[in-house]
Write a structure and sequence with these properties.
mainly alpha; 3-stranded antiparallel beta sheet; two-stranded antiparallel sheet; 12 helices; about 10% strand; globular
């Protein structure tokens, strides 16, 4: 297994095939920010703008600037970061999920995901430019987002007649990533307190001890809900969580938790792979019951990308070569099925279980350049570390 070839392939395809699509078609040169829904040919489908999308895309362009030192990528980063400064929230710091092309609010944010993505983008923008406006906004927004979420979860826990309320691990992962990104901006005490709280929630609320597995959706105060959402095993969200919490466990010296999570990644790689057609399922039922929606069997590019990075990180922790075999398997599936060889480039986002593309849009409210850029850069870096060893 020649790992250097893979690392070179990741970086080369990233810069030559994937990134040019986003720099050509996703930049809104009229109103600022980015265009969020784009056809396979580069046509704008709507000019409404998703705020979480902007935070993720700005962060991704910032990582490209760090990789290449091309000034254009810094400009693209700040285009998103500045749009968030002006239009991410209303005058009372209530965040939007969607705004129109000019930044006017359309839909309120339903969780802390948009705020967390903005914090990560602003933290990186500050690192790249030294501008204090980004640092101040990142610190203020993260503090308010955590406090507002805590109050909301407490309120839902105490509301007897509020119906079934569940929280999602994706929101927790976004906050962990935001906290890690803003570490240099936070005081050591504040960073540690927030990090300890997030790790406690991950291990005590989302970890189901009876099945020894991480769930996607749990009650606000933790615990398994025996319903369709509560029974979901979502491998992509767990791979993402491991990637988001990996650095946090290192900074906080939580070696036991990191090893426990790495062991779970190995278990997940064994149990959620589609042996018949390849690729990781979108979700499975913890009781092994049939899925209620066909989407469960779809194959998403972002899930396979997060899996590849998580498997390499888990190998760093456990030094179990089975993890490299799992990584080779998902790597081969990813490059065979998702890479788009059309002249526009980029990647296919969603496949049927059998491997056929399900739609041609390259950008949607759920898909931007974030997962591909993040994971191709991080996986290439991890492969280089393994080569050096």
């Amino acid at each position: 297994m020649n790992l250097s070839v893979y690392a070179q392939q990741y970086r080369q395809d990233l810069l030559q095939r994937l990134v040019p699509f986003w720099t050509e078609f996703s930049l809104d040169t009229i109103h600022g920010g980015y265009i969020c829904v784009i056809s396979g040919k580069g046509e704008a489908i709507t000019f409404d703008k998703w705020i979480k999308w902007h935070g993720q895309q700005a962060w991704a362009f910032g990582k490209l600037y760090q990789l290449t030192q091309h000034d254009d990528f810094l400009r693209y980063t700040l285009q998103g970061a500045d749009f968030l400064l002006h239009f991410g929230a209303d005058t009372k710091d209530n965040w939007w999920e969607i705004v129109d092309c000019t930044g006017r609010g359309v839909l309120d944010a339903s969780d802390a995901g948009a705020e967390a993505a903005a914090v990560a983008a602003w933290s990186l923008a500050h690192e790249l430019t030294g501008e204090e406006a980004y640092a101040d906004s990142a610190k203020k927004t993260l503090t308010k987002a955590v406090r507002r979420r805590e109050k909301g979860l407490q309120k839902r826990t105490e509301a007897i007649f509020a119906g079934r309320q569940l929280k999602n691990i994706g929101e927790l992962s976004a906050l962990a990533k935001a906290l890690t990104a803003s570490q240099k901006l936070m005081g050591e005490k504040t960073f540690r307190e927030k990090g300890e709280a997030l790790l406690h929630e991950l291990t005590k609320h989302f970890w189901e001890p009876r099945a020894n597995i991480v769930l996607e959706n749990v009650f606000p105060d933790g615990g398994y809900s025996d319903c369709l959402l509560g029974r979901r095993i979502h491998p992509g969200r767990v791979f993402e969580a491991f990637n988001a919490f990996y650095e946090l466990t290192k900074v906080l010296n939580k070696r036991r938790i990191r090893q426990q999570l790495a062991q779970h990644i190995l278990h997940l790689a064994d149990t959620t792979w589609d042996d018949a057609y390849g690729g990781y399922f979108h979700w499975l039922d913890v009781k092994s019951l049939p899925a209620s929606e066909p989407e469960a069997y779809y194959k998403y590019a972002w899930v396979q990308l997060e899996a590849g990075t998580a498997l390499l990180r888990a190998y760093q922790v456990l030094q179990d070569r089975t993890l490299l075999k799992h990584w080779q398997r998902v790597n081969d599936y990813l490059w065979q099925h998702f890479r788009d060889n059309s002249k526009e480039g980029e990647w296919v986002g969603v496949l049927s279980r059998h491997g056929e593309p399900l739609f041609t849009l390259k950008a949607t409210p759920e898909k931007n350049a974030y997962y591909s850029i993040k994971n191709l850069i991080e996986s290439a870096d991890l492969l280089e570390i393994l080569i050096d060893k």
